[in-house]
Design a protein that fits this description.
By secondary structure, this protein is an alpha+beta fold. The longest helix is centred in the last third of the chain and has 35 residues. The chain is built from nine helices and 17 strands. The chain is globular and about 60 Å long. It has one domain: Anthranilate synthase, CATH 3.60.120.
């Protein structure tokens, strides 16, 4: 793990394109930094935006592993972006209220059944140890897809996603309908009607795609999935799909699901672009490792984009006609804790180290105090 931590920090410090990840419920960690002469064309890491009409999908080719990257120069590595993509300012409570009312108007007049409203939170911790942050995310969220990457087209991102978009290996295709949110502390209570309805929209959407494509599938019983301080309702789906190309076509139909966009999809996507004051860029898109025979794609959420001095956190929630503004705001605040906890702990560690360095006694002063202590001890002994 220490080699991985060093590799991540080296890549970020030297502005190198790379990716690192850990799959849910897995103990294996993966790191790769592509080089200018590619040796592996079909394997790598795919990053797709929320809206592919606005930004391109990016493929980061597989290259050097963590050990080799730590023990070589960076001249033949590929440079990445130095800044976050997009012009972000933090979403205020007043701005969120205005956006919420616009969404509710569309829901009440029947043009939308559901819409996902997101916001951004801006943090400024200038000296994050991203290798350690990755390690802490992996420890705190064992069931999540943990990732960090940087590329010229995307900027640097990190996150802990609880949501599978699609996984495909050996003709086995799987996905999930994840929606509806409450505090994990309330897991002993019954789910509310609003949350059940919200998650049901996503499950119905997935089933409709399978049926339209003539695919026989298995829908597993609804369950509660805990993700940090919050919990969600979830149905898992499994199906046999004949080829990787057929699986990729299913992905193109699934994305974006109602869990990150809304219903009807096209109308919700248009509404989001008009109502939200910030660009989503790659938030709400999907990402994950790809091989010649399969892929593991996860929705880009509980995530942030970052540059040298600041971090932009994204969080959102699904709105239906029964949504309450204060409850939805509180939900986004709870979701933001996934990444805030990591940033805060890292930032406080750095602050405490800096404070200790500035308040540490100077050598001359320390020597004086030590000498004074010896004199006092000797004097006391002489008196006794």
């Amino acid at each position: 793990m220490e080699t991985l931590r060093k590799a991540i920090n080296k890549a970020i410090k030297n502005n190198i394109t790379f990716y690192a990840y850990r799959l849910p419920d897995d103990r294996l960690y993966h790191f790769s930094a592509p080089i200018t002469r590619q040796t592996c064309e079909s394997e790598g890491f795919k990053v797709s935006p929320f809206d592919d009409f606005r930004l391109p999908s990016v493929f980061i080719h597989k290259g050097l592993n963590a050990y080799d990257f730590c023990n070589c120069g960076t001249d033949f590595c590929i440079k990445a972006s130095t800044e976050s993509i997009g012009d972000f300012s933090e979403t205020t409570r007043k701005e969120y209220a205005s956006s919420f009312q616009q969404c509710m108007k569309a829901l009440r007049n029947g043009s939308l059944e559901k819409i996902v409203l997101s916001k951004v939170i801006k943090c400024e911790y200038p000296t994050i140890d991203w290798g350690l942050a990755f390690q802490q995310m992996a420890e705190k969220y064992p069931q999540a897809f943990i990732f960090i990457f940087n590329a010229q087209e995307t900027g640097a991102w990190a996150g802990a996603s609880p949501e599978t978009l699609a996984r495909f290996h050996d003709s086995q295709f799987s996905t999930m309908a994840l929606a509806g949110t409450r505090l994990a502390a309330d897991n002993d209570k019954e789910w509310g009607i609003k949350e059940i309805q919200e998650q049901g929209y996503v499950a119905d959407y997935i089933e409709d795609i399978f049926l339209r494509n003539g695919i026989t599938y298995t829908k597993f019983p609804r369950m509660t999935l805990t993700a940090g301080r919050v919990a969600h309702l979830c149905n898992r789906f499994a199906a046999n799909v004949v080829s990787m190309s057929a699986a990729e076509l299913l992905v193109s139909e699934l994305h974006p699901t109602p869990a990150l966009c809304g219903l009807p999809t096209a109308i919700a996507k248009t509404a989001i672009s008009k109502i939200e004051s910030h660009p989503r860029t790659y938030y709400g898109g999907y990402l994950g490792p790809v091989t010649s025979s399969g892929f593991d794609y996860f929705v880009n959420l509980r995530s942030l984009t970052f540059d040298k001095d600041s971090q932009i956190l994204f969080c959102g929630g699904g709105l239906t006609v029964d949504s309450d503004e204060d409850s939805e705001w509180s939900e986004t605040e709870a979701k933001s804790q996934t990444m805030k906890t990591i940033l805060y702990s890292e930032g406080e560690i750095k602050k405490k180290k800096a404070s200790a360095q500035t308040t540490r006694p100077r050598p001359a002063y320390a020597y004086f105090m030590y000498s004074l202590l010896i004199v006092v001890v000797v004097h006391c002994k002489a008196k006794t």
